[in-house]
Specification:
about 140 residues, OB fold (Dihydrolipoamide Acetyltransferase, E2P), 5 helices, about 30% helix
């Protein structure tokens, strides 16, 4: 794995989809997470919802207009940088897993987010994520 920076503390990000952001014009795949597909339907409380769309909205909300830092670890088969992204030292993958919106992708992560996922499983899924979205929208 290489350790390089795809973004400095001054780069803004645009959300490409539920697990990919665009920083400085480059697509960056968030590493070590497994996110629902953009068009994937899930059910909560007996009601269907578009999990991928909501996950992308949560990621958009978490990042907001804040500067994003990306630490590149690899490049995937589609040519995207694979990186851990953060704002003010708070990792997006960690927050998304802890909130129950995405999962630890153990095939690649070697359990990097296992603690966050265990915490998320201990409470009603997505409650924390909804709270984060609501807090950002009320700003």
């Amino acid at each position: 794995m290489k350790s390089a920076s795809a973004g400095s503390a001054n780069d803004s990000a645009n959300i490409f989809n539920d697990d990919t952001i665009r920083v400085d014009g480059k697509r960056v795949r968030l590493c070590d997470i497994d996110a629902p597909e953009v068009d994937q339907d899930c059910h909560a409380d007996g009601q269907p919802y578009q999990a991928g769309d909501l996950t992308a909205l949560v990621l958009t909300t978490l990042i907001g207009d804040d500067p994003v830092r990306c630490d590149v670890l690899d490049t995937d088969r589609d040519g995207r940088a694979v990186a851990r992204s953060s704002v003010d030292g708070m990792g997006h993958g960690s927050m998304m897993v802890a909130a129950g919106w995405v999962w630890d992708y153990t095939r690649y992560s070697n359990g990097f987010y296992v603690t966050e996922e265990a915490r998320a499983r201990g409470r009603r899924p997505r409650d924390m994520g909804r709270a984060v979205v609501a807090a950002r929208l009320l700003k």
